[in-house]
Amino acid sequence: MSFGPADLAASRRMKTTRVGGGHPGYRTIADPDPSDPDAPRESYQQDQWHYSIARMVDACTGNGILPFYGPFGDIKDVLGCEAQFRSAFLLGCVGAWSLHPVQIGIAKKVFSPDPDEVAFAKRVIEAIPDGRGVHMIDGKMQDDATWKQCRVMVDLAEMLARKDPELAEAYGLQPA
Whole-prediction pTM value? Predict the structure, then answer.
């Protein structure tokens, strides 16, 4: 299933004409400084798609469907594209649409787990081979839930390593 931000925005009557990514008007603002109520307040742009992407991922997971992030329309904003793709990856999406060749490299980079994360996940799985019990690794508690998270990471790395010799080398895995 793929997330269509523009279609969703239209169906919800959202006030945006952007295709994916953030919107400068969707912000949160810090509380006033009690000692200087007229001082400028920090403000941060928020991600108006976060909730909807997470809901799509939940629906997909519950039905055995792979979730994909939809298009990011601002081709020139490679930094924004990377940030949006990374958020989607961290929420559980397995890939994204690419509207332009420049986005292919971004998607490949973002939707491939970081080699350091894979190495750590492999250490957890080696330390807890049956996925049971509680263990301390690098001063942090690891348990069955962590083991499951690590299994997701290593399974993805193994799948990617079978298709990409460079990733296989980065992950310390054998290519197919």
Answer: 0.83
> Which phi and psi (to 5°) does residue 55 adopt?
-65, -40
Integer CA distances (angstroms), 120 to 71, 82, 89, 97, in order: 32, 24, 18, 29
Taking only the tens place, the pLDDT of each residue in 44-69 is 988 889 999 999 999 999 999 999 99
pLDDT at 17: 82
Percent of the chain that is helix, strand, coil (3-state, to 5): 50, 10, 40
- Cβ atoms of residues 110 and 86 within 8 Å: yes
**Structure tokens given for 7:** 């279609």
Distance of alpha carbon 117 from alpha carbon 84, whole angstroms: 20
